[in-house]
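Section 5.1 Outputs to date
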Amino acid sequence: MHLKKPPEKPQSGDQHPPSPPRRRGPRGDLPLWSGGGIRTSAATADPGSIDNIQPATRWRRVSGIVALALATLLIVGCGVLAESDVAPIASTDAAAVKEATAGAAAAGNDAWLAELQVFRAEREHALRSPEGWMALVGLHWLEAGAHSLGSDSGNAVRLAVGPARLGAFELLPEAMALRLILADGVRVRRDGAEVTQGEILIHADKSEAPTRIDFDGGSLGLIERGGRYALRVRSPQAPSLLAFKGLNWFAPDPGFVTEARFEPHPPGQTIPIVNVLGQIESTPNPGRLVFELDGTTHTLEALGDPEDSLFLIFADRSNRRESYGAGRFLYTGKVVEGRVRLDFNRAINPPCAYTDYSTCPLPPPENRLRATITAGEARYGHTVDVPAS
């Protein structure tokens, strides 16, 4: 067998000579290189093998083998690895990063869900409270002059609960208050302190220190709306409170969590807010919020204080069928560096969704969103199986 002709030099434009074809030896553990007369099995020796070559030629062959081995060791020692050697490592790193990212996202989502559940529980607890909206049993609008007050039918203002004759009262609009003169033998608590006789001054809810009067069977307070005054009465035995079966919520959806940009209005700007009684009240309007939902830009005019919490009254396309028809409320955190988080999963129904004895504000025209917000509190009494009509 004659030695094969060495490969020709690469043609112009080639960067490297072609690599010799590679095949495995009979034992499958060491390579055989064709074209060089180098073999790893004596069983395959032939007249052209290294054992049958003249000494000078054998020396050149051995030198070539040694050089090739040294080059191979040098390449490996310098860290030159085949793509197949590094690909699994890169793949493993990518998988680890992906897994870590998914883990962090899951942890963040779990924390968000936990906080949302706490919020929902606190919301329901507040409505179940004897001081909550469900406990209302009366809303009595008052006129000027002296009037009698109590649960007996003979009173000018008849209460649903309490003593038959609580006393007589007179409005003091200039003081945003009401003067109550207790009937004989009546015992009440004014802001927790017992009073058994004499005159009590009851301040309205918009004064610096609103007054609460507790008596057997219930409590009352004075509210002011658009220059008019009314007594709001509560009882722990209110029919709406006793019949309360819990709230309905849309499924938690992170897609309704977004960040809004706060655009401040000039100091002192107000916005007219209409309530369910048709009264209009100019309300401080510190700015508006600009945000995106599902790729669409929306705006909401904000009430409240940017340094504490913004109050949003909004309507959307879910109203009437899936959520309360007159809109919903949403409270935010403090505005920080012109940004604030909006989580519509915390949207709540106004009090008038649960009682006839409230004076809910309605969304201004600017706050009617062209979006369907299926997040937060759903319509009271609405279920997925039986849609509200």
